[in-house]
Every structure is written in structure tokens, then in C-alpha cells.
Amino acid sequence: xxxxxxxxxxxxxxxxxxxxxxxxxxxxxxxxxxxxxxxxxxxxxxxxxxxxxxxxxxxxxxxxxxxxxxxxxxxxxxxxxxxxxxxxxxxxxxxxxxxxxxxxxxxxxxxxxxxxxxxxxxxxxxxxxxxxxxxxxxxxxxxxxxxxxxxxxxxxxxxxxxxxxxxxxxxxxxxxxxxxxxxxxxxxxxxxxxxxxxxxxxxxxxxxxxxxxxxxxxxxxxxxxxxxxxxxxxxxxxxxxxxxxxxxxxxxxxxxxxxxxxxxxxxxxxxxxxxxxxxxxxxxxxxxxxxxxxxxxxxxxxxxxxxxxxx
Length: 311
Hints:
By secondary structure, this protein is an alpha/beta fold. Helix content is 41%, strand content 19%. The chain is built from eleven helices and twelve strands. It has helices at residues 8-20, 23-30, 34-48, 64-90, 103-120, 183-187, 200-206, 224-232, 246-251, 263-267, 289-302, and strands at 53-56, 59-62, 95-101, 124-130, 144-147, 156-163, 166-170, 191-194, 220-221, 237-241, 255-256, 276-282. The chain has a five-stranded mixed beta sheet, sandwiched between helices. The chain has a five-stranded mixed beta sheet with strand order 9-8-10-7-11, sandwiched between helices. A two-stranded antiparallel sheet has the order 1-2. The longest helix is centred in the N-terminal third of the chain and has 27 residues, at 64-90. It is elongated.
């Protein structure tokens, strides 16, 4: 079945014309004549039935429709160019994989373990980006993402990696390591918050049957790594995933600010929160061989005890 879309040449010319806001500059960029650019733009306008440029004595100006369409066209052309370069580079085997991950997860958990993946799969080039908020896969060149919280992204496939065990940590000098803490002890110290989880402390206290006044107040950060580092420097108490501060706890840079469990909780431990980590990928990319290898490796490592890797 024939695809209902303009030719790649027409789209390339259109994208260049919008980017430069000039037919002359687009022609120079693509080594074409100005008349050739004009013909391609006119062909596209006729095909779409939508005016794409306003002509004036001082040149051309893209319409709003052209600006919006060109962003999508540029993303698609970039993806085709990337995939073509990848195929040329790898030949018959291997591949390139671009993964987005939460900053602290990437730096504290993933990167220390990546050498094992790269050694086992030298034919795969793994690109790693950081993201703190959900994004649209179709508007990026990202093949998969590692995110926490819910994984309800339409049009994606989610693979469970691990549950999250939040732990309150601070510098050893901030609290007496042997004294049992109570709710008022937390009220006397600054609570450090993750910007995307404003009620994390409240939920953590509620899971222990406690109420702490002003549990939503305190400085906010957009990465767990910032919170952990601030906790090391005695700036407050941070609520972070245990596996992300395992090294700091072992080295004595941080200590756990423990609260005594209620008797009911001790007999039947309650789940602190519903947060979990997932590998998320678009449905159309789930069969990517490089992604399949990475998924298998990642799931295997997440199933192991969360000890910091050896240096």
C-alpha cells in the first residue's frame, strides 16, 4: 500500500526553508536553486491544502501551521538520519541504543554497572540521557526510559525492574545514632524534598502511624543526588531510595534516621509506598534487538541484591 505522504526531498526542502525563514538560504544550504526550493514548497502546499509561508517584499515568513509541522518533520528526518548512520556504522550486527534515566538512578546505580553490559555487548553503542519528567517518545530520539512512580504511558510497554525502599538519612553528627527518634525529632530538623514528590515525607510518616507538622515544608531539589549530598553536609534529613545511598551508608557519610515501628507494623510490615522502577519503551521499538539485550541484562541485575558494585 502506497504511503500518503510527501517525498523526502520535499520535506527536507520545507524543513530547511522554515529553519532559515528564507528560500534563498535554504537553497544554499541544500545546494539547490532558489526556483527548485520554491517549486518544492508550492508542491507541498498544494498537497496539504494549507498555506505554509506568507510572501512579502522582504522575503517569506512561515505560518503557524508550518512552524508546528516543521518541528515534527525535523524530528522524523533526524531519526531517519540517525538510523541510517547507525546501519552504515554497524553493518549486519550490533546497534545503537539511546536510553533516558532519572539522574540519580543513572549516576548511582546504572553507570557503575554499565561496564559489564558494554563488555558483554561490544557491538551495541549505548547513549545515556537524563530526564526528570515524562516526555513524548515520538518527539525524541530516545528508545527507552527508566522511570519511577507509575508507568501509565499510552502506547508504551513497561517492564518492572524493582520496588523502591525509601529511607530517611542524614549526617551522623545531626542525630544521636543510638537514640530512638520520635516525630518531634524530625520537626526540629529541616526536611529535604524531591520537587516531583511534594508529599513523600507525609506518606512516609503516615506509613509509620505518625503525624509531623509542616511535613511539606523545606527546600526542594530536582534530583535525589542533590538531596543526598545536602544531607552529607548536614543541611537536613533526606528521604531517598536506599540503593542510591548504599555506598554513603557503608562509608559512614550518612546514617539512617530510624523511627520505631508500631507493634502492628512490626507484626505485619506495610508497604511504604507504591513507587517502583520500570523500563519503558514505545510499542513500535520493543522488538529492537539492542533494546531486547539491554532489557534482559537490566532485569537480571535488578533481581540481584542491591549492593554497590565493586570499584
